[in-house]
């Protein structure tokens, strides 16, 4: 969520990765940054008669009320964060069950497709074939994040196509807004400059193979989406506590979780800054530097980055790889068994078929 108060986040974190978010700049389509206030037009005031006791001071217009700081406004966002995260992991567990169930059938389908492909005459310059070869050359992690990247690109294009009030309402997160919950997720797919989008997606692409190899694609997506809303809630909490409200966009909070869990799991991995590949450092040192910088920014009141969202995402990633995996993912068996029983009763298929045993 790294772009707070209409910002673009830019940070280099190593490996190939660097995390991006910068404050200010332009909205997509050349739309300038929107400010919270605008200068009101001046209206001529009637002259008051001169003389002692004849001047009546007009009462000053009341100021608009400031957004309430009550933490009670965070109850709904908190429940949404917990509920959405739970649903994400539950859906991921069921998805993994269904994937394992169809793996055998998919294996035979792929064998048949390969055999038929060999019988067909080869065509040079076939675009579809080249695309298929490129897709097959990707790692499972890269294939997994490809969908996330496409979603981010589509939302970026939507800023120039969809009416601006709709985008501001649902694709920017702000605890003072009337729409609080849904933007916590949608804003993490929203970017306000091509550089912001490209940098964040590059970081995600760089860490995708390592993260998905650790977690699997189903668990990875659950972690990514849960980290997205958790980082948004962290931003909500800090903004409400300090009274510094403002719209936020960007995937950096979720990406920070991916980066943090990889660096925690592989602390001795060597990383490098993309523009300075000759300088290398360990993943553990990179993570410490990032957390230290965001902590300092939070305590010192820096407004250039949304340090609360970054810290929320990073701490979630660290917590999950150390404790959450054991606490959540390894206790998914009751849900999977319940789903299996429901499929068995409703499908009535034999082993390997609909409703059959895995």
Explain the overall architecture:
The chain is mainly alpha-helical and 358 residues long. It has helices spanning 75-101, 103-119, 127-137, 140-161, 164-170, 182-186, 194-215, 217-242, 252-265, 283-300, 307-327, 333-347, and strands at 3-4, 7-12, 18-23, 248-249, 270-273, 276-282. Strands 1-4 form a two-stranded antiparallel sheet. The radius of gyration is 25 Å and the shape is globular. Keywords: Hydrolase, Membrane, Mitochondrion, Mitochondrion inner membrane, Transit peptide, Transmembrane, Transmembrane helix.
CATH homology-level superfamily: Rhomboid-like
Q: Helix- and strand-based class?
A: mainly alpha
Largest sheet report: 2 strands, antiparallel
| Residue share in β-strands | 5-15%
Roughly how many Å is the radius of gyration? 25 Å
Give short descriptive properties of this protein.
single chain; 358 residues; mainly alpha; Rhomboid-like fold; two-stranded antiparallel ribbon; two-stranded antiparallel sheet; 8% strand; globular; disordered N terminus; disordered C terminus
Topology:
Blueprint: E1 3-4, E2 7-12, E3 18-23, H1 75-101, H2 103-119, H3 127-137, H4 140-161, H5 164-170, H6 182-186, H7 194-215, H8 217-242, E4 248-249, H9 252-265, E5 270-273, E6 276-282, H10 283-300, H11 307-327, H12 333-347
Helix pairs in contact: 1-8, 1-12, 4-7, 7-8, 7-9, 8-9, 8-11, 9-10, 9-11, 10-11
Enzyme class: hydrolase
GO molecular function, one term: serine-type endopeptidase activity
Family: Belongs to the peptidase S54 family.
């Amino acid at each position: 969520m790294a772009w707070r108060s209409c910002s673009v986040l830019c940070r280099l974190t190593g490996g190939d990765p660097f995390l991006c978010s910068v404050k200010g700049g332009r909205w997509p389509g050349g739309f300038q940054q929107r400010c919270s206030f605008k200068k009101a037009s001046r209206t001529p005031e009637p002259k008051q008669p001169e003389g002692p006791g004849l001047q009546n001071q007009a009462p000053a217009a009341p100021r608009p009320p400031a957004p309430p700081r009550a933490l009670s406004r965070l109850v709904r966002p908190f429940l949404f964060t917990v509920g959405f995260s739970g649903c994400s992991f539950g859906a991921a567990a069921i998805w993994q069950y269904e994937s394992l169930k169809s793996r055998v059938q998919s294996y035979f389908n792929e064998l048949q497709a390969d055999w038929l492909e060999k019988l067909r005459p080869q065509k040079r310059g076939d675009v579809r074939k080249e695309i298929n070869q490129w897709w097959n050359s990707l790692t499972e992690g890269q294939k997994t994040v490809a969908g996330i990247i496409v979603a981010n690109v589509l939302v970026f294009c939507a800023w120039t196509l969809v009416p601006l009030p709709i985008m501001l309402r649902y694709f920017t997160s702000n605890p003072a807004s009337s729409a609080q919950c849904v933007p916590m997720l949608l804003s993490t797919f929203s970017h306000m400059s091509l550089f912001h989008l490209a940098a964040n997606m590059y970081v995600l692409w760089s860490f995708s193979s390592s993260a998905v190899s650790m977690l699997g694609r189903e668990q990875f997506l659950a972690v990514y989406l849960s980290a997205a809303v958790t980082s948004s809630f962290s931003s909500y909490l800090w903004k409400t506590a300090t009274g510094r409200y403002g719209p936020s966009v960007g995937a950096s909070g979720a990406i920070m979780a991916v980066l943090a869990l990889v660096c925690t799991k592989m602390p001795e991995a060597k990383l490098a800054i993309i523009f300075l590949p000759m300088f290398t450092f360990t993943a553990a040192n990179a993570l410490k530097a990032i957390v230290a910088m965001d902590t300092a920014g939070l305590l010192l009141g820096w407004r250039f980055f949304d340090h609360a969202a970054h810290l929320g995402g990073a701490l979630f990633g660290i917590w999950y790889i150390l404790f959450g995996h054991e606490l959540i993912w390894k206790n998914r068996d009751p849900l999977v068994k319940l789903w299996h029983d429901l499929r068995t009763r409703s499908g009535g298929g034999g082993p390997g078929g609909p409703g059959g045993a895995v």
